[in-house]
Amino acid sequence: MKLGHAFFAFVAMTSAGVGGWWAMAQTPAAVSAVATVPGMPAVIDPANLYSETAADKLGPVVKEALPRVYVPNRQANTVSVIDPATLKVVDTFKVGRNPQHVVPSWDLRTLWVANNAEGRTDGSMTPIDPLTGKPGPARPVDDPYNVYWAPDGKHAIIVAEELKRLDFRDPQTMRLDYSIATPQCAGINHADFSIDGRYAVFTCEFNGTVAKIDLVNRKVVATLIPSAYYERPDVVAQLAAFEKKPATVAETPELGGAICTTRGMPQDVRISPDGRTFFVADMMSDGVHVIDGETFKQIGFISTGVGAHGLYPSRDGRFLYAANRGSNKVFDRPHGKGSVSVIDFETRKVVKTWPIPGGGSPDMGNVSADGRYLWLSGRFDDVVYRIDVASGDVDKVKVGREPHGLTVWPQPGRYSLGHTGNLR
Fold first, then answer.
1. 329-349 pLDDT tens trace
2. Any residues with CB less than 8 A from the CB of 108 and at least 6 apart, and which?
3. 281: in domain
4. Is the omega angle on the peptide bond into residue 410 within 30 degrees of 0, that is, cis?
5. Which CATH number goes with the domain that contains 26?
6. 278 occurs within a structural domain
7. Could you list the residue range(s) of the whole structural domain that residue 42 is in?
8. How many structural domains is the chain composed of?
9. Residue 244 burial (10 A CB sphere; 0-12, 13-18, 19+)
10. Is the residue at 231 inside a domain?
11. Global confidence as pTM
12. Would 149 be classed as within a structural domain?
C-alpha cells in the first residue's frame, strides 16, 4: 500500500477508535465535580487540570510514536524533524506556504502543519503521521494561522487571523461547518479553554485586546484590554483610544510623572491548574497578564522579560515557563535579549530566569514528555533551543529560516486542545 493510501486509512480509523478508547477510559470512578460540556472528557482533578499530562502518563495512543521534534520554518516553507536523542535534524520536507504551527490532533493520532499563506488565498493543512514522521497530502484551508480543537473533539477550530474569524471544521476532512466572526479582534491568534469547555479566551495581537468566546452559543461575549497598569482605570480608559502610536498618559500631579505607553501585543494563553485564571503573555508589555476567567477582569501582571511570547506548564503543573523573545518587534535581528522566565503558578512570582547564551529569540514550543527539557524555536536565529529545566543549560540545533510553533512528540495526556500541544 502506498504511503498516502496508508496514511488516510489510518486517519479514517480515528473517529471509531478514539470513541472506543474513551468509553474504556471513562469509568464511574472518573466522574468529576466539574460539569463539562457534553462530549468533553471528565476533569480528573479539579485542583490540577494538568494532572493527566504528568511525565508518567504517556497514553497508549502515542506510545508507538517516533520521538521527534517537528519544527515549521515559516520562510523556508519546510518542516525540520529533530531526533531529540542525538540533537540532529534527521529529515526536512516541504509543506505549504508559511507554516506557522505544528498541532497535535484532538485524538493524538495526527500532527497538523498550519500553513496560512500570508496575504494569499492558498492556505493549507499538512497532516503528519507520528508513527512514521512522514507527511500526507495537504488539504486546502483558508488562512490557518493556528489550530485548536473543540473540547468535545467534534471540530477543528481554525484561527483565520487575517480574516478575523474562527472557522469550525470537520477534524478529518477539514470541511467548513460554521464560523464565529471576530471583527474586533485584529490578529486573533492564541487561546486556551475554560476548565469545563464552555468558553475560550483568544488573544488579539494587533489591537492589544483579549476576547472571551462563548463556544456553546457561538459568539464573542466580552473584550478586555489587558495592561501592566491594570490597577489604573484612567490609564486603561485612555489605552482604549490608542491604536498603534505610542502615547503619553498624563498623571495627576500628586501621583508623580508621566507614563509613556501604548497598547500591548498579547500572544500565548494558558489557564491556571485550578481553572480559575488565565495567563496571557504580552510581547509589548514584557510580561504576563493574569485574568479572572469568570469575571473577565484583569487581576495581576507579572514582569518577565523582553517580548514575552510563549507559555508552557511544567509536567508537574507547578510552574509556567514564559519564553521571552528578546524583542518587541514582529521581525527583528538575531542574538536579542531572549530568555525564559519560570513563574510559580501559586505565588504568581518569577522564581528563575534563564538567559539564552549569546542572545537569542525563544518563541514557541513545548516540554518534553519526561519534563526534563523545554524545546523552543529561535524565531530570529534559525535555531531550536533545548533548555534543561533543572539547570537552565541551553543546547542549540540549526534548522530552517524563521522557525515558529514547533511541537515535541509524543506528549503525555488524554486529548489535545491544539496549538503546539495544549494537552489535558
1. 999 999 999 999 999 999 999
2. 59, 61, 62, 410, 413, 415, 416
3. yes
4. yes
5. 2.130.10.10
6. yes
7. 3-226+264-409
8. 1
9. exposed
10. no
11. 0.89
12. yes
